[in-house]
Design a protein that fits this description.
Helix content is about 60%, strand content about 10%. By secondary structure, it is mainly alpha-helical.
Length: about 170
């Protein structure tokens, strides 16, 4: 019999009794992961630990991976609205991590770009977060790390698709 999540906009999915236990364990582990991620903010280790919030990290990362773009394109690519991007980008511009320039073809439009200072700061935070991931997965084989990364990427993509937003771009594994 199909089950329907609390959000009636989501499609019903057939669930067998055998699935129930596994799905309960999965949802519990996702909840524990979310709590642990919030507790540690998964911000890395060392001086850079927790020195950049998630929104800033994701914005800077996208600008680094995809290059300069307008607020609307950035918002669309991140699955959030333009007003949220504008609010989140403002402190990044104020601190010199992002620079605003005029669009080369339409001088009225604003283009956001990662500044050299922003790139240096992003690399510092990435290094710290890589070190944290190395510590968390210490004792894992390379295959286990690759499998976990692939499954987590797939999970995030499925969740984004289900929720109607665009998946977050990230470095290829």
């Amino acid at each position: 019999m199909p089950s329907n999540p609390a959000n009636s906009d989501l499609p019903a999915v057939a669930e067998t009794p055998a699935d129930a236990g596994l799905l309960d364990a999965l949802q519990h582990q996702v909840a524990v992961f979310a709590r642990r991620a919030e507790q540690t903010r998964l911000g890395g280790v060392g001086q850079a630990r927790n020195s950049m919030d998630r929104a800033a990290y994701l914005l800077l990362n996208r600008l680094d991976l995809e290059g300069p773009m307008g607020v609307k394109a950035l918002a669309c690519g991140m699955g959030i609205d333009s007003s949220t991007v504008t609010r989140q980008v403002a402190p990044l511009v104020d601190t010199g991590l992002v620079k605003r320039t005029s669009h080369p073809e339409d001088g009225r439009a604003v283009v956001l770009a990662l500044s050299p200072r922003g790139l240096a700061r992003l690399e510092e935070v990435r290094h710290s977060r890589r070190e944290l991931m190395a510590r968390v997965t210490d004792g894992w084989t390379e295959d286990e790390r690759e499998s976990f990364t692939a499954l987590l990427t797939r999970f995030n993509g499925s969740l984004s698709e289900l929720m109607g937003s665009v998946s977050e771009a990230g470095p290829a594994s």
